[in-house]
Amino acid sequence: RRAEFAAMRDLPSETKDGARVELMVNAGLRDDVAALDVTGADGIGLFRTEFQFLVSATMPQRERQQRLYKDVLDTAGDRPVIFRTVDIGGDKALPYMRQDEDNTEENPAMGWRALRLSLERGGLMKAQARALLEAAAGRTLYVMFPLISEPWEFDEAQALFEKQREWLADQRKKLPNAIRYGAMLEVPALAEVLDILLPKLDFLSIGTNDLTQFLFAADRAHPKLAERYDWLSIAILRFIARVVRECNAHDVPVGVCGEMGGRTLEAMALLGLGLRRLSITPASVGPVKAMIRSLNVEELQVFMTGLLKDGTVNVRDAMTQWAKDHAI
Ligand code: PEP
Ligand code: MG
């Protein structure tokens, strides 16, 4: 079916009943950006900026970061690129970074990582902010912050960026035309304070990799647990459905950027929950687009509402059957 997927490259990702789905790709290295042309994706929905840090032998200085971001933006052209600030620390420790005395972590995934680390290591975040702001001069900069647990963390991160923007303006540097700030929803607690968080945001992105590991208290990298909990479980789907409803009520665009969205049946379920933006691994764009183009999403939404209300049915089995019955 490779040829069939390739032929779909330029066809719109639209359901049979006319719902447009934004299909974006996840990336992290300069070469990943070529996937935009290969797949015909709408943009990069998650650019993991920590990759540059992880493959470097020394801390990438601001100029090096800026060069990468500029290259990525130049290649992307007028397609949006959502840059996520570094998600390092914990299990993605950098050998060249100064560690604190008591940095041995029993639970690195829940430890000193991502935005928690960035906010404390202000110099690191400032350099990244300046690199992003200068790289996106003359265009829109999309930036999002990982592993937010409470709204004040978003406030602090945004304030840091705004301060750098002001500083660059004082230096008469050319700036982005606009900045769109987003948050990743990966920590379940954040879902309880969306009424406070959402009015501050330009967009929200659900990171289903970390989110499911925290919802189920199950290490995402543990081989014994990999098959145990299903993305198509009532708990996850109800959880995501609630988040999507709240985002819609606040008029805040919401997407999914975890690996869940790259699996065809899971992607279908996400559309059934009301999502219209997925950022997925490039290899999944063809199969997911094929699914979208054969789908009547309104029918699916009615079906899934019943399924989630009932709660006793095996969702994977029921959805597999539904997909078969509807020639997906
Ligand atoms: C996620 O947690 O779902 C996510 C997209 O971020 P990462 O996989 O980089 O942790
Ligand atoms: Mg994550």
Give an overview in words.
This protein is an alpha/beta fold and 328 residues long. 44% of the residues lie in helices and 12% in strands. It contains 14 helices and eight strands. It has helices at residues 2-7, 35-39, 50-54, 62-76, 114-120, 122-135, 151-170, 194-197, 208-215, 234-249, 264-272, 285-293, 297-310, 315-325; strands spanning 22-27, 44-48, 81-84, 140-145, 178-185, 203-206, 254-256, 277-280. An eight-stranded parallel beta sheet has the order 7-6-5-4-3-2-1-8. Helix 4 (62-76) packs parallel to helix 6 and helix 6 packs across helix 7. The longest helix has 20 residues, at 151-170. The chain starts with a helix and ends with a helix. The model has no long low-confidence stretch (mean pLDDT 95).
| Radius of gyration from CA coordinates | 20 Å
- The quaternary state of the protein chains shown equals single chain
Number of alpha- plus pi-helical segments: 14
For the secondary structure, the number of strands is: 8
Low-confidence stretches: none
Roughly what fraction of the amino acids lie in strands?
A: 5-15%
Q: What's the arrangement of strands in the largest beta sheet? A: 7-6-5-4-3-2-1-8
| Spatial gap, N to C terminus | 14 Å
Mean pLDDT across residues: 95
Characterize the largest beta sheet: strand count, sense, and whether it forms a barrel.
8 strands, parallel
Spell out the helices and strands N to C. Answer: HEHEHHEHHEHEHEHHEHEHHH
Sum up the overall morphology in one term. globular
What ligand species are in this complex? phosphoenolpyruvate, magnesium ion
The level of helicity is 40-55%
Assign the structural class, choosing from mainly alpha, mainly beta, alpha/beta, alpha+beta, or little secondary structure.
alpha/beta
